[in-house]
Specification:
46% helix; four-stranded parallel sheet; 13 helices; Rossmann fold; six-stranded parallel sheet; single chain; alpha/beta; globular
């Protein structure tokens, strides 16, 4: 979202970004030409009432901004921001576009964060937003299909597919290498992202490729449990936990230093940034074949799709990539080619700019 806003500014547009509060950050500031306005409230999860509080504050912020600036388009991500934008739509006639980011209904029940009651209430709000916005953006045909399956065919006429774009000039292959056979995971340390499956598969692959390393970037409440598991497996020297990494330059260096990027998620949904960044950096990418966008990105040979929780299958692919340089190089080359052909930040911005212009014509 931020990169898209930055590209719009570079093309001469005036862009305001309304977002949640961040402890220690300024309420108002300009970054890369983007005029950022943060709410006073910093919602970090929890009960639904907290999300409602944030939504009401942002609703007032958007209405006041719209009275002053008269935006042409409001583009939101997620149903909370969608609800906050609807008063401006009805008060000022502003067109509202929402990019959908999936639903917890796609998750296995044992992995869901919310209660069934809260999920049903959330879906009511989301259905309301989707029915009252002007356009719904899906990142792939897979995302469009599951949204229609969940919310009904009535949404089909307002849905548009705009593939996710990655900044391929920032996330690009490097000629340098650290010489290690390294596997990289970037994401929340949780079973939603399939960390246990990855650790078990790596333990098997490590027996055949003792020099292989696994680096995990991210945080989560289960991190201590995963570290204990690594010690019990005797893999202390082969597995590193780096914690969260939010600096793009450091992320690029981690992708460059790795041969393989793995995200064995147990939940479907939109296209993962980790997968797109890994592909853009010319890495061999492995992820799971679930409802959503990843199938459309990887099924053409740009990466490898595995079944969820398939420890043996993942271990086999890791071994093959680590032991067969030709196979590894071919996948890495196709990964970068796929991004350059279909998934650059510029191509995404072109599609969205054309969509905005069509709405205002």
């Amino acid at each position: 979202m931020y990169d898209h806003a930055r590209k719009l500014v570079q093309r001469g547009n005036v862009v305001y970004l309304v977002t949640r509060g961040v402890p220690g950050a300024k309420r108002l500031e300009v970054l890369d030409g983007i005029r950022i306005q943060r709410s006073s409230y910093s919602y970090q999860g929890g009960v639904l009432v907290n999300r409602v509080r944030l939504m009401i504050e942002q609703m007032l912020m958007i209405v006041l901004l719209q009275r002053r600036e008269r935006f042409s388009v409001i583009h939101v991500h997620g149903f909370t921001a969608g609800l906050a934008s609807l008063p401006a739509r009805y008060l000022f006639g502003t067109r509202v576009i929402i990019t959908t980011h999936g639903t917890e209904l796609l998750w296995p029940k044992e992995l869901r964060w919310k209660s069934e009651r809260e999920i049903k209430l959330t879906l009511l709000f989301e259905r309301f937003v989707l029915n009252h916005c002007d356009v719904i953006i899906a990142q792939s045909p897979g995302v469009k299909d599951y949204m229609i399956r969940i919310y009904g065919n009535g949404l089909a006429k307002k849905m548009r597919i705009v593939p996710t774009g990655v900044d391929h000039e920032r996330f690009k292959p490097s000629a340098s290498t650290n010489g290690e056979r390294q596997i990289l995971f970037v994401g929340a340390l949780s079973e939603i992202k399939g960390v246990t499956c990855l650790l078990k598969a790596f333990a098997i692959a490590h027996e055949r490729v003792p020099g292989a390393k696994l680096v995990l970037v991210g945080s989560g409440p289960k991190a201590p449990e995963y570290k204990t598991r690594v010690r019990e497996m005797g893999l202390d020297g082969a597995v590193r936990f780096l914690g969260p990494v939010r600096d793009d330059a450091r992320l690029v260096s981690l992708y460059d230093g790795s041969d393989i990027v793995v995200l064995p998620s147990n939940v479907g949904g939109p296209v993962s940034c980790t997968v797109m960044e890994g592909l853009s950096c010319g890495r061999a990418v492995i992820s799971t074949d679930l409802p959503g966008g990843l199938h459309d990105v990887l099924a053409g040979g740009a990466g490898i799709l595995m079944r969820p929780e398939d420890v043996k299958g993942l271990a086999t692919e890791l071994e093959k990539l680590l032991l067969d340089p030709g196979y590894l190089h071919g996948l890495q080359t196709r990964a970068r080619q796929e991004v350059e052909a279909k998934y650059t930040l510029d191509s995404m911005t072109d599609s969205l700019t054309a969509l905005y212009a069509g709405l205002l014509a």
